[in-house]
């Protein structure tokens, strides 16, 4: 029996179960402590970015329909890293423009999070954007055509988290870390800080199949 915390969970076999434009499902067989094996289903994902856009003590929030919970949720402007090789900061700038009609001259990294580590490899880098100005939002489609936008005092957004009115985990992480940074109790990281957590499996398989630059296209 190995000492707890030292076992190497080698992948003995891997099977692709399902693939769709923005995610895939695979089953890995792992070497478990004590000599046995175990199967784990993993949802593959491209990863995503989100933005806390702050202006005079207020932040930009959007309210968007999410069919998984069949309700509209308060969220941060955000988007999937579905363009092959695109830097996360570039994606964040585009999503802020498309969802909030905003651009920023000052960018920093607030936090990185794994949204559901028990079964999904999605990670999200959350940025703090300041020195804002308005830009053309462009044409919205699908759920985003129904999206609403609101400037909300940061302290009220924190209170909405604590009252259970904001339940999107990415928004909670961004709001609470932004509150710490903007209150001087913490420091954001430089915008070019490397991100070792960005998922690679789904993007690599699409790339190998000749898909790109839009990785949402099916092989």
Automatic annotation (TrEMBL):
Residue ranges occupied by any Nudix hydrolase domain in the UniProt entry: 44-174
SUPFAM superfamilies per UniProt: Nudix
GO cellular component: cytosol
Molecular-function GO terms, alphabetical: hydrolase activity
Name this polypeptide is given: ADP-ribose pyrophosphatase
Coiled coil regions in record: none
Domain of life of the native organism: Bacteria
Pfam families referenced in this protein's UniProt entry, alphabetically: NUDIX
Organism: Corynebacterium humireducens NBRC 106098 = DSM 45392
Segments for region (Disordered): 189-219
GO BP terms in the entry: nucleoside phosphate metabolic process; ribose phosphate metabolic process
Keyword Hydrolase included in the entry's annotation: yes
Keywords: Hydrolase
Lineage of origin: Bacteria, Bacillati, Actinomycetota, Actinomycetes, Mycobacteriales
